[in-house]
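Moderator note: this is an archived Q&A kept for reference. The question asked for a predicted structure of one protein chain; the sequence and the answer are reproduced below.
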Amino acid sequence: MLTVFNEHILLFVIFLLLNVIDWITGRAKAKAQNKLNLDTGSKGMQKSFIAISFIVFYDNKYI
């Protein structure tokens, strides 16, 4: 598993950075619309988790 991260560390760092940016902008948008609550945040986190799961599965499939 560690070799996967070592080979593609740049892609994982970029993906993590994009997730953080997405989280910050989503939070700012929800706060501006007074819709900041736990349900909105958990839906976004679920989408990110699903995306990460697909990426890890796809990458491990071809090792």
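Archived answer notes: The mean pLDDT is 77.
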